[in-house]
Amino acid sequence: MELTKQGNFPAKTKDGKSVILCANAGNLQDIKNAVQYHIDGVGLFRSEFLYMENTHFPTEEEQFLVYKEAALLCGKELTIRTLDIGGDKNLSYYQFEKEDNPFLGWRAIRISLELKDMFKTQLRAILRASTYGNIRIMFPMIISLEELRMAKEILKECQEELNNLNITWDHKIEVGMMIETPASVLLAEDFAKEVDFFSIGTNDLTQYMLAVDRGNKKISGMYNSFHPSVIRSIKKVIKAAHDNHIKAGMCGEFASDEKAVLLLLGLGLDEFSMAGKEIPNIKYIIRNSSYENAITLAENVSKKSTLKEVYEVLSILS
Ligand code: PEP
Ligand code: MG
């Protein structure tokens, strides 16, 4: 079947294995564009744009209106990632201290946990919007159970505050985390007992696993998600998720790498999330794949110790 005719057909292999195929979105327009690809939802709604394209920290009302519209536009599962600034993403109206290693510095959940009022404003806005759709909350850049528990505790405070004001929110709202640090990979079994889902952020996971700056052109040749350490990390995280009866998704760009799809299928990835325009191609590949073959391939690839061997098994020309 041609790419353009993928339409409403499910992301299901020839031998009947279904996966969830979602879009990543960086603003409302991305969701509008993505729905034409018949997505199963939005697996990553990057909330940064609300903060970066602004002159002040967005208020609860401003955020609520955007999350509500996003939920209505999407009409299906909408995974809102809480603020992930720092690293290379700054705000014009907030003075960040200069850091020698911003990607190893004050970023993402670290900022949210410190600027607690700002975090609570965002969480309350998400909770209020949650009655308009199937919203999930996702925390970025987690490295410890302490951080996760603190974030969940703050979320609970927000829920209680809304209850006291008789403001409704979806009491079944799922709370998940991104797996994008080596620490979260190694502790995946423990994290899996305390969240409803994982989403693997291979863009950051690759940079932190390999100690290769994802934006540094001089070493871009070393930045490679097919590195055996990254593949084994993905395998471990999916297993930890399944052992604890939660789903493992991926919202890093590796999920839309056509050379990786079969491998990820075989490793048991439940949800693939990617830029909308990639969806027809990846769906086409999934629909023309055999899950049984994918499992054999993944078993084979995850035994390999060098990039060269991984490439050989996947027939990738280096
Ligand atoms: C990732 O790190 O893979 C990810 C999806 O997050 P971002 O690219 O926004 O850092
Ligand atoms: Mg990331």
Description:
With 318 residues, this protein is an alpha/beta fold. The protein is 43% helix and 13% strand. It has an eight-stranded parallel barrel with strand order 1-2-3-4-5-6-7-8, surrounded by five helices. α3 runs parallel beside α5. The mean pLDDT is 96.
Instruction: Give the class from helix and strand content and strand pairing.
Output: alpha/beta
CATH superfamily: Phosphoenolpyruvate-binding domains
Q: How many beta strands in the DSSP annotation?
A: 8
Which class in CATH terms? Alpha Beta
Helix content: 40-55%
Radius of gyration: 19 Å
CATH topological fold name: TIM Barrel
Overall 3D geometry? globular
Helices, strands, pairings?
Elements: E1 20-25, H1 28-35, E2 41-46, H2 48-52, H3 60-74, E3 77-81, H4 109-114, H5 116-129, E4 134-139, H6 145-164, E5 174-179, H7 182-186, H8 188-191, E6 197-200, H9 202-210, H10 228-243, E7 247-250, H11 261-267, E8 271-275, H12 279-287, H13 291-301, H14 307-313
Parallel strand pairs: 1-2, 1-8, 2-3, 3-4, 4-5, 5-6, 6-7, 7-8
Primary descriptors:
318 residues, alpha/beta, TIM Barrel, 8-stranded parallel beta barrel, 14 helices, 13% strand, binds phosphoenolpyruvate, binds magnesium ion
Q: What would you say about this model in short?
A:
With 318 residues, this protein is α/β, with parallel strands linked by helices.
